[in-house]
Amino acid sequence: MKFLVTGAAGFIGFHTAMRLCQSGHQVVGIDNLNDYYSVALKLARLEQLQALPGFSFLKLDIADREAMQALFREQDFERVIHLAAQAGVRYSLENPHAYADANLSGFVNVLEGCRQAKVKHLVYASSSSVYGMNSKVPFSTEDAVDHPVSLYAATKRANELMAHTYAHLYRIPTTGLRFFTVYGPWGRPDMAPFKFTKATLEGKPIDLYNDGDMSRDFTYIDDVVEGTVRIQDCPPPYADEPDDARNGPPARLFNIGLGSPVRLLHFVGCIESATGVQAIKQMKPIQPGDVPQTWADVSALARRTGFRPVTPLEEGVARFVDWYRSFYGVRP
User: Fold this and answer.
1) pTM for the whole structure
2) Which among 32, 74, 77, 256 could disulfide-bond with 227, CB atoms 3.0 to 4.6 Å apart, if both were Cys?
3) Of 124, 131, 152, 220, which residue is the catalytic one?
4) What is the pLDDT along the chain (332 residues), one digit of tens a residue?
5) Whether 139 contacts 191, CB under 8 Å
6) Distances from the Cα of 269 to the Cαs of 70, 116, 277, 284, in angstroms?
7) Which helix (H) or strand (E) holds 229?
């Protein structure tokens, strides 16, 4: 099967493209290789992918309408896994236009490409950020998500609504995946697991916001990829039928998280155990756009695919620290 994977040089995109190629699929990966974080890390991921049979790469910005039109016109994609986005909650306070370009205009270009090419299933990345300050836990895709607390979250919720509209109007099967704090080898330098590990190994302080009184549903990358690959093979039903009270449009949403929130101080303790170094902790007030807790209800994912994320935090953190030491040449 031929896939388009957007954001292929990104953290989740890299692992997803690798898994698809290893399963014998043909993958065209695109990425604009922007400098939001280390381009060298993105190129190192690409080097791994380009050694795999079935993978090809194009440097392309999803916000470039003409280039995206040409891509879909020239390639015969059967399925699309859309993982490219401008990520980061706090950065959205500094550079809002980057989010409008990538997450809104770019997503329209992906939807239009899927419409023109009659793609059989579009799977796209949403985020646990859409739940905002919801107090009901665990977070369910049945919950109202009308009060985002960051522009990043607002763009991800907009993606869900846009996909729903295209599914209704054009019968494009779409599935949105709300990822919960993904971590693991080759992870993003702007996220807490990477930042905390780097600072701890360098003997520098780590900032714990809301005085450390936060919890996250940390999800190991292999579990995220497993859920993503399984769900892409389960397109929503009724794509060939009109909407009615029974069916609705062929659009679905799923959470992908471990389903077990972890307090931030416990997470830091796992890093300390894996590194053998005591972290220097600095307590800070909560930041704009942050939420105190995330917790995924993954029952819908389990019913649809027979899979639940399973990797324990301690095991996942140890694997990440091992990769970090190896990649950056840090001695134990």
Assistant:
1) 0.95
2) 256
3) 152
4) 999 999 999 999 999 999 999 999 999 999 999 999 999 999 999 999 999 999 999 999 999 999 999 999 999 999 999 999 999 888 898 999 999 999 999 999 999 999 999 999 999 999 999 999 898 889 999 999 989 999 999 999 999 999 999 999 999 999 999 999 999 999 999 999 999 999 999 999 999 988 888 899 999 999 999 999 999 999 998 656 666 655 689 999 999 999 999 999 999 999 999 999 999 999 988 888 778 889 999 999 999 999 999 999 999 999 999 999 999 999 87
5) no
6) 49, 50, 10, 18
7) helix 221-232
